[in-house]
Amino acid sequence: MKNRFSRRNFLRGTVALGFGAVGSSLLSACAPPTSGTAAEVGESGATGEVIEIRVQTPGNRIQETEFSIDEFNKRQGEIVAISETIPYNELVKKTEVGFVSGTLQDCVYGHNKWYKFNAYRGVYMGLDELIDSNPPDDFADFFPLGIEGLRFEGTLYCLPSIIKPGPVSALYWNKNLLADAGIDEPDDTWTLMDVEEAARAVTDPDNGIFGFECPFDSDLHRLACITRAFGDPTTADKRGWPIDEEGKKFRLLEPLISDAMPWLINMVNDQVMPRGADDIEGGLFDSGRIAFQIASIGELVRYNETSGDRFEVGYMVQPPGPDGRRGSCIEGNQWMLNSQTAQVDGAWEVLKALTDKESNVWGAVNSTKIPARKSAYLDPKVNEVNPLYGLSVPIMEEWLEPFPMVWNLRYNEVFQVYAQELAFVVEGEKSWDEYANTIYDKVQEIVDEDRPPKAIG
Predict the structure, then answer these.
(1) Rounded CA separation 175/167 (Å)
(2) Mean pLDDT of the residues in the chain
(3) How far apart are CA 399 and CA 386, in angstroms?
(4) pLDDT tens across 137-183, in order?
(5) Which of 198, 147, 163 has the alpha carbon at shortest distance from 177?
(6) CA 443, 444, 448, 451 torsion-angle sign
(7) Quick one: which H or E segment has residue 196?
(8) What is the rounded distance in angstroms from the CA atom of residue 236 to the CA atom of residue 453?
(9) Which of 143, 216, 279, 406 could covalently link to 1 via disulfide, CB atoms 3.0 to 4.6 Å apart?
(10) How far apart are alpha carbons 455 and 246 in whole angstroms?
């Protein structure tokens, strides 16, 4: 099943995203002196040499990153940005190694899963003073709720590259399957319960047709997009947060979460939603086997391409829960400054260029990049490519809620254990009633641990 986290790929995900023993041992080393071309030239470029700013280009974002760098370099003379590509699944490890050895790039890329952890460890530089003294062009154009959600202990350590209402925040449907089953297409009056009702009517397991897919079992920020839709229609009601507001309580067994989880699992058990063993090459939705799919707002372009002439794709923002509450969970990627950079002013200019409106719009039109600025979400060229951006703006402005970071910053450990243990239930090896307490205990045990030592210096 596409996006499903199984025990087969658990260890692979641990290696790709883990902070684990490698990071702890590396960061126990003393912080090294700065070195390299940028440090030797000096902040003012007094030697007459060009100031080089090294950019940690993620391997899955080469096209738009190098566009931003090229445009920046055309405008500059004294400062030259240099792209250094790192495979995305090696960013965590390469950032740690580079920081300890003094070889980390000046501009660094990250994700919500590890951004605050590295801010805590001192890898990133606080940006508030730079924003006050030399602000990015139209700083207010970044979604305010997104900026607030990215602060760590009151300080902003990044400019966002991508901000979306969640990793699963749009509803897609196969128009052909609905028409064949005589089911009306969704509209703005639908809730998630209406989706379930329609999905059950379309489901035909004998012919390999599933009604619904929603990857709630892979990690907590996907789960949060669903469980936060349960409750009163106001962001003041936080009972649907799988991790409480303080980050100290896993709410798996509490009301609303304990309603939402059986609702999802019952659909799996009734074959309305597929299990991992049901997956096929190319993906079930892409292959025309799923009626309704909840996924990222950025998937529309790909779904339109992969569906081809076989079926037509419908889309809308994810419907609210039973009482009208919207479920969201800020997710995305960020650009940060290496706290050890010797070229603060130059690196800051590059960081602003990587996140400016031009880069946002170009990336959304010419690649798979999701924007981080409101103006890009509303840009006509962007919405020609993907109308879901414009449709999502009200969610981004009114309903965008924080990433479910645990207080001790051990999110990576938490989501791995959650996914590993819930897989027993989702794959039918354990029942929810018999295993829910075990899942809760194992996750809460990690949430109760202290923060890791900063281990720098």
Answers:
(1) 23
(2) 90
(3) 21
(4) 999 999 999 999 999 999 999 999 999 999 999 999 999 999 999 99
(5) 198
(6) positive
(7) helix 192-202
(8) 33
(9) 279
(10) 24
| Closest to 291 measured CA to CA, from 153, 450, 178 | 178
Q: 327: exposed, middle or buried (C-beta count within 10 Å: 0-12, 13-18, 19+)?
A: buried
Tokens of 300: 């529309």
Which parts of 307-423 are beta strand (E)? 313-317, 331-337
How far is residue 392's CA from residue 260's CA, in Å, rounded to a whole number? 23
Handedness of CA 385, 371, 66, 167 (dihedral sign): negative
Tell me how many degrees the CA angle 259-415-377 measures, rounded to the nearest 5. Answer: 85
Q: Enumerate the H helices of 102-190 as residue ranges.
A: 112-120, 128-133, 144-149, 175-181
Beta bridge partners of 295: 170
Q: Which two tokens stand for residue 420?
A: 């590993």
pLDDT tens track for 42-81: 344 445 688 999 999 999 999 999 999 999 999 988 999 9
Whole-angstrom distance, CA of residue 365 vs CA of residue 193 = 34
Predicted local distance difference test score (pLDDT) of residue 49:
81
DSSP 250: B
SS3 86: strand
Residue 126's identity, in one-letter code, is G
β-bridge pairing 51-58 and 79-86:
parallel
How many other C-beta atoms can be found within 10 angstroms of the C-beta atom of residue 161? 27
* Single-letter code of the amino acid located at 155: T
In our burial notation (b when 16+ CB lie closer than 10 A, e otherwise), range 25-46 reads ebbeeeeeebebebbebeeeee
As a residue count, the chain comes to 457
Say if residue 11's pLDDT is above 70.
no
What is this structure's pTM? 0.88
Report in angstroms the alpha-carbon separations of 172 from 34, 266, 395: 49, 21, 17
Both structure tokens of 149: 């959600």
Q: How far apart are CA 222 and CA 264, in angstroms?
A: 13
